Amino acid sequence: MLVTARPADDTEDIMADEEEEEHSGEYHGRLNATTIAQLQVCEANVELMEMCMRCAKLTKHNTVYPQCCGNFDKVREFCYNYVYYRQERGGTATEAPTSK
Q1: What's the domain range around 61?
Q2: Do 96 and 76 contact (CB within 8 A), yes or no?
Q3: Nearest Cα residue to 44 out of 20, 17, 25, 64
Q4: CB count in 10 Å sphere of residue 41
Q5: What would the pLDDT profile of 2-12 be if each residue is shown by its tens digit?
Q6: Does 69 fall in a domain?
Q7: C-alpha to C-alpha distances, 14 to 21, 73, 74, nearest whole angstrom
Q8: Does 4 fall in a domain?
Q9: Residue 79 resides in a domain
Q10: Is there a contact between 42 and 52 (Cβ–Cβ < 8 Å)?
């Protein structure tokens, strides 16, 4: 059996809308104002965001990312040391990223 389909007439409009879409500043879930402020720090600094994401993935803990972004209780320093441990041993690591 052969099935054929034709694309919707408004496909081009949908794709154009998706390309222009930017972050609205809204977050899903039950996040308090402190957590949102911490996340916004990472949005402003891509290097910091990548390090905090790597740390959250390696530690497998769901609260590490916002705490790293906001440097709550020196979590950012912990993450830097944890993520770049092997590079530091070889003497090639640079300073931990800071929020701008």
Answers
A1: 32-100
A2: yes
A3: 25
A4: 20
A5: 667 666 655 55
A6: yes
A7: 11, 44, 43
A8: no
A9: yes
A10: yes
**Alpha carbon of residue 88 to chain centroid:** 23
Tell me the two tokens of residue 99. 């929020």
Within a domain: residue 6?
Answer: no
| d(C-alpha 20, C-alpha 60), whole Å | 33
- Tokens 């931990």 -> residue: 96
Closest CA to 55 of 47, 63, 46, 64: 64
The tally of domains found in the chain comes to: 1
- List the one residue out of 63, 94, 100 whose CA is nearest residue 80: 94
pTM exceeds 0.85, yes or no: no
Tens digits of residue pLDDT in 51-100: 999 999 999 998 999 999 999 999 999 999 999 987 655 554 456 666 65
**The amino acid at 50:** E
Q: Report the C-alpha gap between 81 and 19 in whole angstroms.
A: 37
